[in-house]
Design goal:
With 237 residues, the chain is α/β, with parallel strands linked by helices. The protein has ten helices and six strands, in the order E-H-H-H-H-H-H-E-H-E-H-E-H-E-E-H. The protein is globular and about 55 Å long.
Length: 237
């Protein structure tokens, strides 16, 4: 059995792992735009989200100076609106809808699992989201972070090593004393390359109920679970 006794802090991915962005954004988009256009709101949400990696890559590559995720969400929205033929949306409405990424609901197990984990570990958001975004989200969703480590600190985005490396530096811990918790294979894989321990939490409905989902093979990571409550149990909380 893997020895996890030296872990002192857990760093978490936020979007998808901790909160349900797909249902949250689909609901807000329909509430704002549904009276004027009928769309598959889950498809619209996924199209909006599809701009996420290309937008960040412009910054990771150095082709663009760092801007916060709130601004990227606003720019990404224009692409989705244009592709789905949604016209007549005012700038103010777009700004308000873009900030829906601050208002995402937690998964049903998130808060209960985090409260158990918090009794033993420091819980840190290690997100591509900017601190203002993740802070407001935490307030609305009741997420009990001990600390929020945003991309603001290093002015780039995961999976660049600088963002992972900021966690042990700011928490004053060794990478091996930190466990990265995420539902994205690329995130836990890149954290492992920086010396973190790893926990994969399956979120089959991240892209919508019934979306294609394939879990990594058992034993790929230190811990592989289906909820934060199961993670707490696996870590003895």
């Amino acid at each position: 059995m893997t020895d996890l006794s030296g872990i002192k802090a857990l760093t978490f991915d936020v979007f998808g792992t901790t909160v349900d962005w797909c249902s949250g954004i689909a609901r807000e988009a329909e509430a704002m735009l549904g009276s004027r256009v009928k769309l598959d709101w889950v498809a619209f949400t996924n199209r909006w989200r599809r701009e996420y990696q290309p937008a960040m890559e412009e910054i990771r590559s150095g082709r663009r100076d760092y801007v916060v995720m709130d601004q990227l969400h606003r720019e990404m929205l224009d692409v989705a609106l244009a592709e789905f033929g949604v016209a007549g949306v005012s700038g103010e409405e777009k700004d308000r809808l873009a900030l829906a990424w601050r208002r995402l609901p937690p998964w049903p197990d998130t808060v209960a699992g985090m409260m158990r984990l918090k009794q033993r570990f420091t819980l840190a958001a290690l997100s591509n989201g900017n601190i203002a975004l993740v802070s407001e989200m935490a307030k609305r969703a009741g997420l009990p972070w001990d600390v929020i480590l945003g991309a603001d600190f290093v002015r780039t985005y995961k999976p660049m090593p600088a963002l992972y490396d900021s966690a042990p530096k700011l928490l004053m811990l060794k990478p091996s004393e930190i466990m990265m918790v995420a539902c994205h294979v690329w995130d836990v894989d890149n954290a492992a390359k920086r010396g973190f321990r790893t926990a994969y939490v399956g979120r089959p409905a991240e892209y919508g109920v019934g979306a294609a989902y394939e879990a990594p093979a058992g034993g790929t990571y230190d811990v592989q679970v289906a909820s934060f409550v199961e993670l707490a149990e696996a870590l003895g909380c």
